[in-house]
Every structure is written in structure tokens, then in C-alpha cells.
Design brief:
about 0% strand
Length: about 80
Amino acid sequence: MMLDADLARIRAHRNNIHRYRRLLLTNLSELERQFIERRLAEELSSLAALTAETFPIAFSHSQGSQAAASLAAEP
């Protein structure tokens, strides 16, 4: 059951990341852009941490954060 909750949280972070990336493609004020960029960075960081925590063996080597980042970058 814990894995299901973690996977749901991973999906939520990925959905937020996709939404923020789409928003960055729109016409925004500088203040709005800065806010969204900050939220995107927070979501990417949270996703990397959660992924490493949920799948510690797969991400235990030095490329763990790169692998998590690539998951976040998937369309």
C-alpha cells in the first residue's frame, strides 16, 4: 500500500512539472515566470528525492538524480 501512495505522489509531481512547463510556453509577466520557474525547480527536486526514496536500489549510484530528472522530462 505504501508503494501505491508513493507512486501516486510521483505521478502528481510529474503532472505538476508538465503543467508548469506548458505554462512557461505562454505569455507571462516576469513575476509570473519567476514564480513558475521556482515552483518547477521545487517539483523537480521533490520528484528526485521521492524517486530516490521509493526506489533506493535503482538510484543508489551517482546518476540517481540524473535518472530521476530524465523521468521528469518524459512527455
